[in-house]
Amino acid sequence: MLEQVRAGGLLPAGGSVVVLLSGGRDSICLLDVATRLTAAGDGPERIVALHVNYGLRDEAQDDERHCVALCERLGVELSVERPRRPEPVGNVQAWARDVRYAVAARLALAADSGPARPAVVAAGHTADDQVETILYRLASSPSRRALLGMRPRDGLLVRPLLGVTRAQTTAYCEARGLAWCDDVTNAGDKYARNRVRSGLVPALELIHPAAAANVLRTAALLRDEGEVLDALVGEQLDERAGRLEIPLERLASLPPALRRLVVQRLADGAAGKLVPGAARHADEVAALRRTGHAMLDLGGGVRAVAERGVLHAERG
Question: Which of 46, 248, 292, 309 has the most crowded CB, counting CB atoms within 10 A?
């Protein structure tokens, strides 16, 4: 495990790392690995563990106490956040995720010491989480990106355990004498991700025992091929005045698949993040008038803007 994470290069020597620590086996495994890399001189210079106590479960206080004791044992600085849940909260999981990453990003930016000693946020997502994410997105998000899964690095966020299975993190914690907290809600079927984990993945493994490995392999192949597609998209776009644009006549002449990818790239670039569903407006965008000024909403607060036959995207 130690060598695998070291070889991945996502927890480089120097700088700081904020480890998202839930108290579960995966995050505890990650924290211990980061601590050992630091002690060996080839890991982060400073480690801060972040535990967010949402107060949503009866066991929340026990989880927090466990994280406090663990960090004291490992000699790791711990930051505990206790956010107040808004009413109505809507999607509880989305709210919790947003809070967690916002606090982690704030801690990382405060600890950042420049390009030579950058700070990152490390999450304990494993290969099992990757499979579940891909299957969930396949069912809920009709796009090629749904099959790409989580990236090892996504801005400040790194996922050093993506090549490690949940069984491996369990074995690691047992071998190191590290106790963990089990989230009892993971065994229920209230959330879609749990239903994927407890129902869909086992069903696929009954069809073929290598189902999970095949999902991961397919995602890896698609990511490699995605780099080729990204290069093709880049060849179609011009950059002027710091923004990407393309003549509408050129856009309309592209094959439909490439046209969709171009529109998606324009939307994502304008928003600074993924704009789900923007690509489905590609044909409407290509049909915008080539004289004067025209606009079309692409969703996500982004619109396509055509000015004298040249298209770009901007925030609404």
Answer: 248
Overall domain count for the chain: 2
Domain span at residue 261 reads 238-315
Mean per-residue pLDDT over the chain, rounded: 92
CATH code for the domain in which residue 181 is found: 3.40.50.620
Asked if the model's pLDDT at residue 182 lies above 80, the reply is: yes
Stated pTM of the model: 0.85
In a shared domain, residues 179 and 52: yes
Residues 171 and 288 in one domain: no
Does residue 164 sit in the same domain as residue 297? no
| Lowest mean pLDDT, pick from 139-143, 194-198, 203-207, 287-291 | 139-143
pLDDT in tens, 103-128: 999 999 888 766 667 789 999 999 99
